[in-house]
Design goal:
Blueprint lengths: L2 H18 L3 H14 L4 H14 L2 H14 L4 H12 L5 H14 L4 H15 L6 H23 L6 H13 L3 H16 L8 H22 L1
């Protein structure tokens, strides 16, 4: 490994650790600096996309996702990030679906991609400007994607904490609240038993927030 490549790798790992610690904006600022030095670094570009998605800066996310696709169009995550950015921009839901389809063409069994594709279909299902028949088709496709997410993760030998969070969220959407509670607890357990370098505190915060919301929802339905 060349000295320059080793330096780039170390920089990426350090920035990934900073982002995983929950410091989203500080990590973004440092990622921007490194990308100015090495704009074709795909790992840093994808890490920027992840952080921008977390920061909910959809305009910049779209820009960086396009940059990632330009660097390597065969990376599914790049298309996924573009889909997320478009999904959060009113009127671009159809374009978002195209990006999610592209991501799934490259990685067909990815439950996280399927979940966001389902979310986009359900947004279109609720769009009163669409003809009823078209909206209903989107509703059916969204439900099919959600059920496929559940099937994929339940059949996994060793789901990780991100998988359990995803299936928990999907269970809430399909009104399986007690299943959701179970999966959110499994997400916390899986996080705690993961290798330290794989623990993303940003996702851990999501798990904790989801658990609290699920408890409130479950109490509401049992009162």
């Amino acid at each position: 490994m060349s000295r320059e490549k080793a330096t780039n790798t170390n920089s990426y790992e350090q920035l990934k650790s900073l982002y995983f610690s929950g410091k989203v904006k500080p990590s973004l600022n440092k990622i921007y600096i490194e990308l100015e030095k090495d704009p074709s670094n795909i790992d840093l570009t994808l890490l920027a996309c992840e952080a921008l998605m977390r920061a909910k800066d959809m305009d910049k996310l779209l820009s960086f996702a396009d940059a990632a696709i330009k660097i390597n169009p065969e990376i599914s995550r790049a298309h996924f990030y573009k889909g997320v950015a478009l999904q959060h921009t009113k009127g671009n839901e159809q374009e978002a679906l195209k990006s999610f389809v592209e991501a799934l063409n490259l990685e067909p069994e990815n439950p996280h991609y399927l979940k966001e594709k389902a979310t986009t279909h359900l947004l279109l299902f609720k769009d009163f400007h669409l003809p009823i028949q078209i909206a209903e088709k989107h509703g059916d496709k969204g439900e099919a994607c959600l059920l496929k997410v559940i099937s994929i993760i339940e059949e996994k030998e060793n789901p990780d904490y991100k998988d359990y969070l995803t299936i928990g969220d999907v269970s809430i959407t399909v009104k399986r609240n007690f299943d959701a509670k179970k999966y959110y607890l499994k997400a916390e357990d899986a996080f705690n038993t993961s290798d330290e370098e794989e623990k993303d505190m940003n996702i851990y915060k999501e798990i904790m927030k989801a658990q609290k919301a699920c408890i409130k929802l479950t109490k509401k339905y049992t009162e």
